[in-house]
Amino acid sequence: KEFRLLANIHEDLIISDVLDQFRTFCLIEKYLQTPTLLAEQWTFQITSKTQRLLVAKYYDFDDGVIREILGKKLSGRNRKDLDDVSEKTNVRLKSCRRQFDNIKRVYKIVEDLSGNLVINIQTHFLLPENLAKKYATVVYIANNRFETSKRKLQYLKFDDFLHCAYEMMSNWCCHNPECRFEETAMDMDREFLQMLRELKILTEREYLDDHKLHVMRSLKGKISERVLADLDTIFKSLSRSIINIASGLNHSKEVRDLFLDVVEKVIEPFKQIRMTKTDVELFITNYTEIPRSLEPFKV
């Protein structure tokens, strides 16, 4: 058998080295599944920098694959269905399974921990902050069983859910380790949810009319007359929808359908009257700030 020289190195040596690398990886993989052990083991002499690189590469994932997994139960049955995910995303099945298993592993470790979810993941898996943030949003969505696969949600990318879930974790969860209700980092703050229920008063006719009057007045001259007129027409139904979504977060079924409800009952009405992003931002800002000056909420 003839062998070639590649960059003055015998081909046989290159093949042997590659095989050694594969064998070494198979031995290291068990440590990668529990990254804190990788730094403690003495079998493989690996620098700290290389250890961090290995962990980051092993836990890295494809946004397209995670978008398909997002919101699904991390069960053995769904793991078996990854063939479809592999075909749809053009990512090898073995890689899809690794990504699925990594998410499940992270979820199992942090599901009962209190405190900051991102920090918990960094502590136990030694991931870089940006990657830990991504895992935090994925396990947060998995824990709350948010519906993400309905047809009306298909246009949303992983980054869209990443942004929304991170905002929810940052603003809707109790970050105090001594939480009154002993919530985990993946639970919504119950005191916050109770406060949302108090917003129901804004659906009562007297306060709804007052809220509408002040919001529409504040938007005059800031958005087009056409949009303002259309917004005036849908304001009451839109406001009821927003408040019902918020107050309904006390119930698991309503939580599960949060993204779907927001798209159907808030985003689509905005689209129908052709509001721009700036229009929506102005509306939301005024809509949320004005109740502070209304009678039921005055301090």
UniProtKB/TrEMBL annotation:
The keyword Transmembrane applies. Keywords: Membrane, Transmembrane. GO terms for cellular component: nucleus. This is Growth hormone-inducible transmembrane-like protein.
